Amino acid sequence: MVSLWKKYVYAVIYAVSMGEKIKPIQESIRRSLNKYHLSSSKFDRKVSGLVYNIFRNLGLIDQIIYSMTKINIKEYDLFIRGILRIIVYIYQLDKLSSSETKKTIRKYCIKYLFEKYPLYKAIEIKNYITILSSNKWTPITDEEKIMLKYKVSPELYTALYKAFKLLGEDLDTFLIETLKPLPHVFRVNSLKASRDAIIKYLRDSGYSVEKSKYSNQAVRIYGSLGKEVLRLVETGILVPQDESSMVAVELLDPRENMDIADLCAAPGGKTTYIAERTSLRSRIYSFELYKDRVKRLRLLLERTGTEKAVQIYIMDARRAVEKLGTNSMDRVLVDPPCSTTGALARNPDVRWRYNEKDVEKLIELQYEILEAGWKILRRGGLLLYTTCSVLPWEGEYVISKFLKNKGDVEIIKLSKPFTRSRILPSTMRSWPHRHGVIGFYYALMKKK
User: Fold this and answer.
1) Which residue in 47, 238, 388, 410 has the most C-beta neighbors within 10 A?
2) pLDDT at 399 (0 to 100)
3) Catalytic residue among 109, 264, 338, 388
4) Could you tell me the mean pLDDT of each successive run of 10 residues in the chain, 448 residues long?
5) What is the rounded distance in angstroms from the CA atom of residue 352 to the CA atom of residue 355?
6) CATH class of 243-447
7) Does residue 218 contact residue 246 with C-beta atoms inside 8 Å?
8) Catalytic: 264?
């Protein structure tokens, strides 16, 4: 048992530390579980749960460290940062773990320090651990109170406050909803199985599963995922994908014998769904800039049996016209990089990394990719612009500028299955607090 606890704590240290570099966090957790041979053990879910909670509270944790010790955590290496963050979470924020569990985690964090670092450094960090685990922190400033209540940075809170006022949505309800655990959502790959058959199989295997509300191919699974689900994922029968992402493909309405471009394709959920919806009888051109993300895209194509319908270009989507030519595509999907503020529940690190200047650069990139998508779209074709952002300057404002600058655009009115945008009523938004899905923005346009 002692050995297992040691492996558990060391796995958490590794996942929290490397989670700063390895994205998404799920990948850091997966590598950690494999490294310490904890996959499918009783500690599997414990590692995942603790790591997610730490990243959900990351900025607050760093604030607590500074408040109690006056040290700048950024001055230390990844693993010391990870250890201090674990200690702060379990002693200052964790309301579920027993005092014995906390002491055990503390014990092995200190043991890790003395194994991996020079004696003077281990003693220095141990002294900080003593301070962080012996005293109780309480919020003092308004910013700290916001961080504690909503688990977002003050900068992100300010941006969301402005956005939600413009959009006529309730920010408090939204932020509280993003703190709730989400069910596991999957797309059933119709090339390999029917949704009804998969639901029956999973129910017979003891799972709580239901049809999702917004897409005919989506299922929701509640509770932990066992080997049956993992096997279905590995064989490409189930594809992890949020309903709001599936709806994007359905709005684009891809059909057989079409030329279709997906300009920001990885990790591949939308690309593979386009291939599935067209029964592998369309020509799909997927663009992705980063090689590591292309690996994930290729793996999903192989798993889902859709690789023969897809041509991958490892390049900047803004140069798509160089490969495809002008007026060449029947359908274009533009899902550019964004602030990911619609996915706070699934990507907890997003809660703390918001930076206004970074978003300004993203907005420029979004518009440039949209323009590239329009160049390759032929007359009569459809282009869908979508982002998983709840900020109108990444959605409605981008489209408003585009409509103003282009004379050959017909906006297609959207109102189902989600809700029309208050700012630009011809476009649509999905909301975590209204629909129980990731927040997405959708604008569908036809080239005249």
Assistant:
1) 238
2) 98
3) 388
4) 82 94 86 86 82 94 96 94 97 94 96 96 96 95 95 96 97 94 93 97 96 95 89 96 97 98 95 98 96 93 97 97 97 97 90 94 98 98 98 98 95 96 97 96 97
5) 9
6) alpha beta
7) yes
8) no
Of 55, 116, 111, give the one whose Cα is nearest residue 86. Answer: 55
pLDDT given for residue 225 in this prediction = 85
Tokens of 233: 């994922």
Domain 184-240 class, CATH top level = alpha beta
As a whole number of angstroms, the distance between CA 313 and CA 265 comes to: 10
pLDDT score at 2: 53
Q: Does domain 2-138 have CATH number 1.10.940.10?
A: yes
Pairing of strands 409-412, 440-447: antiparallel
* Half-sphere exposure of residue 127: CA atoms within 13 angstroms, side-chain side: 7
